[in-house]
Input
Amino acid sequence: MSFDTIATPTVEVAPHREPVFAHEEQSNAALARLDEYVKTYGCRPNLLVIMFDDVGWGDFGCYGGGIAVGAPTPNIDRLARDGLLLTSCYSEPSCSPSRASLLTGRLPMRHGLLRPPMYGERGGLEGEITLSQLLSEAGYTTQAVGKWHMGENQASQPQRVGFDDFYGFLSVSDMYSEWRDPAFFPEVVYSEARTEWIENQPFNRCFVHGTKGGELEDVEEVTIPVLSTLDDKWAAYSVDFIRRMSDASQPWFLYHCTRGAHFDNYPLERYLGASPAKHPYKDTLIELDDIVGRLVDALRESGQLEHTLVFVSSDNGPNLETWPDAAYTPFRCAKGSTWEGGVRVPGIFSWPGMIEAGGASDGLFAFTDLLPTALTLAGSDAVPADRFIDGVDQTSFLISPQALSHRKYQYYWLLNQFSALRVGEYKLMLASISDDDHDVHSQGGFEGVTQRYPYGRLYNLYLDPKETRSYLVRKLAYIDAFTSGIGKHLATFGAYPPKNAFAR
Ligand code: CA
Output
């Protein structure tokens, strides 16, 4: 019988692991190729993650945006053509939950960062086991550059959770700039008392540098002119790292997180007006695309392109509350919501020689999947056993030509509320943020009221990607596929209770 996403059952991996589609032949073929790679080159592959901020599914040319929306992205498009383009790659609804899920292989309900910590608020990655730590233990050099936003407290800082070196800022772009710009905060800019009050809040206004286990040192205060140079400076730092590592005997993990294109955007001077749209958000996209080009060129020129798995994505859907300083999505709603517009993000994987060029798949890939996948590539079997791991190993999905995803279920959580489940092309929505005109000023996902649907709403994402027409009453045959998937998922929180990083 041929494989089907709804009709095929999953198999259990371990009590603390998300069940998977087995795809045994593809998995074995992938592991054999990986062994062959390691034998041929005598090394494990490097991992480069390029994470954009608030960039939309529809911003890149390879996803239907690019020149059509006033900002061509030739470097990103080329990377996608040379690799694998995923159309169902999922983040969480906002920055910190997504980033922590990527680095822990766990959903926000488990790592506890249900929402971003702001202005020095407590709460962070503290107590989690991270991909950086595990790869470091597997012999990788680990480097984080750019935006962190997983806690400012010492135990949550990058150089304390497995990174050998960190060069970037601890929070998020707007926190450094919004209260300095009279266009947005005249009542602060023109008031000495309020400016001083903000400056006394417990967040670091500088971007910083630190090395493993040490203290962070301030590099420079992030004023608006400094902010406009950050992505350029951070790209140069990562390019230096890539070049330096070409002589090293150990593999590396570079986690490069851009400042752009989170609101508010102040592009580097040479990019002002560089986009056909002539808008700061679009000019920033041109800069970000150039940065992808620079990083890939550094890999190529240093002979490491064939030895590096590159993953390009964005940490959540576009933020439509800051329109027009915002991205584009063809889906419903935006950042902050569990509608597709909030969590369906670009997902491009490239590894010439190992990932077949020109591949595309609508198979499910969740941010949590990176951790177990990267560990397999690293030859490590250290997936944590003392806690629940939501990520599934997607090695064969990435490196076996025409392979299938091992993930059956995409779980959508809105803070601590279970919101929806996707299986195959269907999504059952139980609760979400309302985005209709009565409740919100814009289409932004953070704004609306929470709605619960007594019977749920079933959407066919192929026929109705904008999630407008519930199909439930015509498709009751699928109900058990959904209720059993939801029931088993929620039951895991019995043996592995949820965590809230803000409650400590
Ligand atoms: Ca974000």
Q: What stands out?
A: The first strand starts at residue 46 and ends at 52. Residues 24-407 form a domain with the Alkaline Phosphatase, subunit A fold (CATH 3.40.720.10).
